[in-house]
């Protein structure tokens, strides 16, 4: 190993250490609270691999990237609910909704889950294709392939919500003819540059990380552990607020840590600069659920409030003790809100009212 290689690797290690310090400082600055284990681990015996047993499929995106899917429920269901996960997550982020909505709604609802490009089981994209606009095109491709007819309800979290809004701006006719309702969880249409995780992502250390990936991706792969110190600690700490099941915490940490470093770097700028405000008129007449966590420091609740104010048919739900992953930590509250959205979307009124009442 020559001196230049040693120096470069030493530089990466330094970036990792500084990144960890920067992340810790940023988390303190924006009010992160220490997570404590719950008094009992209610999810000790939970099967978080539930989706692995569901029928699997592949959708080819417009640029050839493979998108892994899972489907639940009959093809002739009244509605297909498509779930779109967030940054550094996978389709399993909606584990509890997959489990509970199937029990609550039976054959009235079909569910489709997929891994975003560069996440989970889906294929590796080029860095240039990791844009919010492309996520919108991916979503339409998934709907067309897995639910070619009938109404759909879209449920999207964080970065997935940004992609959903991009799809609406790109394909207003498609939304008008096919989409019966929309849920936007912990997301924003625009103006995130000065709040939440965007403040952290503007740190000079993270700018250095982006430059390192662009300049020497093979070396960054070698130094993945160091690079993970830059972004993933933020995501780990910001997922939950207050006491949390150790099993649930480990499950979420593993999901985040499986995300390739190239995917993390490629989407950072897209998250920071996105603006999908053009989508809001497309959603104006639809039943919409806007849900956020009161302690979310990735997409602060103020973004949810602004989003709901611009959507006249929106129900705004503030989950008082939640951070950025309410669909996992407060699954019942989120699933109840989705029940109400399905009722508003016109799905099986009798079964829906029974579900909400039960």
Automatic annotation (TrEMBL):
Residues 80-329 form the AB hydrolase-1 domain. The keyword Lyase does not apply. Keywords: Hydrolase. It comes from the Bacteria. One of its GO terms (molecular function) is hydrolase activity. InterPro entries: AB_hydrolase_1, AB_hydrolase_fold. PANTHER family: ALPHA_BETA-HYDROLASES SUPERFAMILY PROTEIN, HYDROLASE. This is Alpha/beta hydrolase. The lineage of its organism: Bacteria, Bacillati, Actinomycetota, Actinomycetes, Mycobacteriales.
């Amino acid at each position: 190993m020559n001196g230049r290689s040693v120096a470069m690797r030493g530089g990466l290690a330094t970036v990792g250490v500084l990144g960890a310090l920067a992340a810790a400082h940023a988390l303190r600055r924006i009010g992160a609270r220490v997570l404590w284990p719950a008094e009992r681990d209610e999810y000790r015996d939970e099967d978080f691999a539930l989706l692995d047993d569901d029928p699997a499929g592949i959708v080819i995106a417009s640029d050839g990237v493979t998108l892994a899917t899972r489907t639940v429920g009959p093809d002739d269901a009244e509605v297909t609910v498509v779930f779109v996960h967030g940054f550094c997550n996978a389709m399993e982020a909606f584990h509890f909704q997959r489990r509970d909505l199937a029990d609550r709604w039976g054959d009235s609802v079909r569910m489709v889950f997929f891994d975003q490009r560069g996440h989970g089981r889906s294929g590796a994209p080029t860095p240039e294709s990791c844009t919010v606009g492309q996520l919108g095109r991916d979503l339409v491709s998934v709907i067309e392939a897995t639910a070619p007819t009938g109404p759909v309800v879209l449920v999207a979290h964080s970065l997935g919500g940004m992609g959903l809004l991009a799809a609406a701006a790109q394909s207003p006719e498609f939304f008008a003819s096919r989409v019966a309702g929309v849920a936007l969880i912990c997301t924003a249409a625009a103006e995130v540059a000065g709040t939440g995780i965007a403040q952290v992502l503007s740190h000079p250390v993270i700018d250095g990380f982006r430059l390192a990936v662009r300049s020497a991706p093979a070396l960054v792969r070698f130094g993945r552990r160091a690079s993970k110190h830059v972004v993933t600690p933020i995501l780990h700490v910001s997922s939950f607020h207050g006491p949390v099941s150790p099993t649930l915490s480990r499950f979420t940490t593993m999901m985040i840590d499986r995300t390739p470093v190239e995917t993390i770097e490629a989407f950072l700028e897209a998250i920071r600069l996105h603006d999908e405000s053009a989508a809001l008129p497309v959603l104006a007449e639809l039943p919409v659920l806007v849900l956020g966590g009161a302690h979310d420091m990735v997409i602060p609740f103020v973004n949810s409030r602004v989003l709901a104010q611009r959507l006249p048919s929106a129900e705004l739900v503030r989950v008082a003790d939640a951070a950025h992953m309410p669909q996992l930590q407060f699954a019942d509250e989120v699933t109840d809100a989705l029940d109400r959205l399905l009722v508003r979307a016109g799905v099986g009124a009798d079964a829906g009212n029974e579900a909400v009442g039960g």
